[in-house]
């Protein structure tokens, strides 16, 4: 895919964790190469300084699910109509044949509705999987009640019958509904561009969410100390940290 313009899609405009930090870093790197960038974010973008780099911002003006009322959070978390409408409008008014859409975090504000909006440009969509919500209802293939890794097939009979959620089975049921909705909109027939995992061991589990025709690639997060040298005590040798974090 050639990229003459990038649209970065993320729940937040201000870094709260690794996913948003990488989303904003990618915007900065695009701008460093003079590639026009739009940040489509779920929050109100009130405190971000990314626009100082020439990044255009389109904000939904929403709040994280845990900061909303329960009923509103249940509904918007399953399908955020405002986010879908705003993204559809952005695509309708500004899309070009060489615009790439890069999805980062979506589960805390934007919801699966954004993939409904992205269907029309699916071959130019890259989905960065910082977690495993694409495949697993609780996002981590982990049974929080038993405190063990989970190997159940997502949305299979054993999965549906198990209370693995860290809060309650009601919460698990809500997550199952959201996962079902996600699979309804994120299907093979739209020929999505690619799914990017941040670790090679994520690939097998991400492949269980039913979009086998998608290109699934691994792109590790950039290590902060790669290439930094230091002297060891008593010796005149240099030690480097390798990309995988080993000495």
TrEMBL record:
Q: Which SUPFAM superfamilies match?
A: UDP-Glycosyltransferase/glycogen phosphorylase
Q: Which Gene3D superfamilies match?
A: Glycogen Phosphorylase B
Q: What is this protein called?
A: Uncharacterized protein
Biological source species: Neptunicoccus cionae
Taxonomy-wise, where does this protein's organism fall, top ranks first?
Bacteria, Pseudomonadati, Pseudomonadota, Alphaproteobacteria, Rhodobacterales
